Each structure stands twice: as structure tokens, then as C-alpha cells.
Write the C-alpha cells for this entry.
Amino acid sequence: MLADTDPGWRSHAFHNRVLGTVMGISFTTAKLLDYAAKSDALMNSHNPFAWITLAHLRTQQSRHDPDQLYAAKWKLTKLLYQHGKEQWRCWNDSSSDASGRCRKESGTS
């Protein structure tokens, strides 16, 4: 998971060389910046990780503007309250729906 602000940088491997021996791994990455153009989808999502991504992106976008940062925090707070009437569960398979998404537990607050 990459949370930096450089759209051109993507790490995909790590290699270490010691005394002529090389060890390394290659991996795929997800970059939060890739979701910046999908703010509406993140905001309308029922997935808590979408909101975390949105909060991170809003913080990056408004880092040097206190008024914009306050407005972003207020909007995210309202979003959480809109979804906060029921408790969300997504920690195990029994709480996911058929598509694997998190679901709301009924009867909790």
C-alpha cells in the first residue's frame, strides 16, 4: 500500500546484495493516489476502507490550507454519521455478504 504523493513512483521489488549473494522479492502494489479521481465512488461506498482512503486523499489535498482541511474533515465526519446508525462488521467471512463486501449488523448501534 503506497500512500505517497508522487504519481510516478511505484515500488515493485526489494533486493539485497551481501557478499555476492542477492536476495529479493517482487510484489504488486496499490497506490491510494490512484483513487483520487474516484472520490464520489469512495464517498458513496459502504466499505469503511473506502472512507479511510478518502480521508487520506483529502488530507493530502488540503494539507497547506487549514480552511479546506476543516471543510474536508467536517464532510467526512458527516459521512461517518450517515453510515454510523448501525455497526459495521467485516472482520470475518460470516459478516460479509455474498459478494465479499462488509455488511451492516442489524440491531446494533
Observations:
- DSSP finds three helices and four strands in the chain.
- Residues 13-87 form one domain.
- The CA atoms of residues 5 and 56 lie 11 Å apart.
